[in-house]
Write a structure and sequence with these properties.
single chain; about 170 residues; alpha/beta; seven-stranded mixed β-sheet; 6 helices; 7 strands
Length: about 170
């Protein structure tokens, strides 16, 4: 089973994905892609990560990997479990900002690994294509790659859910 949860900022997509992981009845491994600075100011990535940590059951496994997601998914595919990846758009941002940013190859490897996975896989990604086109080049690349990534993953996932105001809207079942 491969599930993709999409939504805007604070749409409830992560909470819905976590509920799906809990309902799987399997051991859960949470793969976090965020890179966190030491500062824990309100609204900072550190503050957001703290909220996610508080919400997750303490017995879930945790892997923190900002770039090598395909390899992590391959490594975790050795045993039956539920793997929840949050968030693909952070992973994409990490690649776009990396010194050696071969985003096309990283995206191809991710889609290939998602297609081949044997465990229950839950992916979380932002839907960023509903707003205006950004003016900056990096922001436009991010929006374009996000849309492409979400389309490609939606094609290979069994279920796709759009979160709006904390409510799930099934796009593919």
């Amino acid at each position: 089973m491969r599930q993709l949860f999409l939504g805007g900022a604070r749409s409830g997509k992560s909470g819905l994905a976590e509920q799906a992981a809990m309902s799987s009845g399997l051991e859960v491994v949470y793969v976090a892609t965020a890179q966190v600075s030491k500062r824990n100011e309100p609204g900072s990535m550190a503050a957001r990560v703290a909220i996610h940590k508080e919400r997750r059951p303490s017995h879930w496994g945790l892997v923190e990997e900002p770039l090598a997601l395909s390899q992590i998914l391959l490594d975790l595919d050795q045993a039956p479990r539920c793997v929840l990846v949050d968030c693909l758009t952070l992973w994409l941002s990490n690649h776009l900002c990396a010194e050696d940013n071969d985003v096309d190859s990283a995206l191809e490897a991710l889609v290939s690994q998602v297609t081949q996975t044997r465990h229950h896989l839950i992916l979380v990604s932002n839907e960023v294509g509903s707003g205006i086109v950004p003016m900056g080049e990096l922001s436009r690349q991010f929006q374009d790659y996000s849309g492409l990534m979400n389309q490609r993953l939606a094609q290979v996932c069994d279920e796709v859910t759009l979160a709006v105001a904390g409510l799930p809207l099934s796009l593919k079942k």
